[in-house]
């Protein structure tokens, strides 16, 4: 018989997705540029289901039922283009090329156009959940044509994670690069989720003197609250780990310089292009950069920059009130980063012509992916039906949650500032929140400055139209026709 789907690129992600497909009853054709990797997979896991071994792309294509489905899981970037170029002459009209890697969404838009010119479907699919998710059920965010989803959707839904209500964490997002775009924003939110946990860890230790082993317990408890999530759970695991070599907490022997592979950076770059204020996500990307980009500067600054602390006393060791304040500040900051990410999705929908259903997107992140959390069920509810809030924070449910969080959030940011503990996301998220709430922003002054040096004009609060002050003349005001009032 023929295979229902082929996978080319059998490193961790491709191999695990292929196994997941086979375990779900599909016959899977396997291909990898280096044939040894195909054989290794068959040796170790051939028993997972029905596989067809192929050596060349031509073999792969010949082994598939039509229309063909080929999942490409090679390194993002040039390798994806190389594989597409090699596949195009071998394929027939309506065959589907699926890119399940972390491709940049604009590459996906370009590739979809190119493939469409050859009568082929190209489907960019965001896959989240790392190796473990790929094997046991990832969160899947497919883009591409709706027609291709008819043929592909049932398979992807079958291998995807399932939410607590049994719904698959996979649904068609929208055309061309929409799936990869949503996956990218997911990763941006993931950066912020991780950073706020990091800030809480730093505060609990340096302000309340709670050592990592004891913090593991704090995070375990937090995981039973509305913070319940995968990242809080694994934080507890990491903090409880003792280093075998030194007997110290592992977190104390790990170099404090965070790496990144680029998807967080893409989120922020795209947000800048869209004019979307994702300050909490941006601060979390910059916090990683601050930790690692210039170690020499950090070392010199430790010695030489004045601290100017306005307080040197923390709180009583393990003070439960402070611990609860930090928990609430973390939750509030997390709400802001989700609000910003979703706001960015709305802006992208307008810019790229996608109709993105935020309740559906939130529902896909409920399981399988790194940011899976109880909160996503509530976000999904907030965007259900016709009463979608203009900003997530304005959904009635979140307004009442914030009521309980904001005083704690202010106390924690004040304390951190007084003691010199950096909290870039806690504090920028709070500034975003206050910026949204503010009745008058200093943006009015900025408009005045812009009009002064560049005649950029301004609008008035009391009259329609566009105005300019003749700053270098008699400083009278003119309207857009150049007439004085
Ligand atoms: P890698 O990103 O490490 O890619 C390795 C694969 O690409 C191998 O199969 C390799 O073949 C193939 N390849 C390369 Br490199 N250049 C090629 C070329 N010119 N032509 C054909 N094949 C080529 O694999 P991965 O870590 O499994 O990730 C796959 C995708 O999934 C990436 O986009 C990644 O960002 C994404 N992703 C990864 C994770 C994760 O946790 N690792 C999570 C989510 C998404 P070879 O064996 O012959 O060298």
From TrEMBL:
Keywords: Gluconate utilization, NADP, Oxidoreductase, Pentose shunt
UniProt cross-references to InterPro entries, sorted A to Z: 6-PGluconate_DH-like_C_sf (IPR008927), 6PGD_dom2 (IPR013328), 6PGDH_C (IPR006114), 6PGDH_Gnd/GntZ (IPR006113), 6PGDH_NADP-bd (IPR006115), 6PGdom_BS (IPR006184), NAD(P)-bd_dom_sf (IPR036291), Pgluconate_DH (IPR006183)
GO terms of molecular function: NADP binding; phosphogluconate dehydrogenase (decarboxylating) activity
Pfam families according to UniProt: 6PGD (PF00393), NAD_binding_2 (PF03446)
Catalysed reaction equations from the record: 6-phospho-D-gluconate + NADP(+) = D-ribulose 5-phosphate + CO2 + NADPH
Gene Ontology process terms (BP): D-gluconate metabolic process; pentose-phosphate shunt
Positions with a binding annotation for substrate: 102, 128-130, 186-187, 191, 261, 288, 450, 456
Sequence similarity: Belongs to the 6-phosphogluconate dehydrogenase family.
UniProt-recorded name of the protein: 6-phosphogluconate dehydrogenase, decarboxylating
Annotated source species: Rothia koreensis
Name of the gene encoding the protein in the UniProt record: gndA
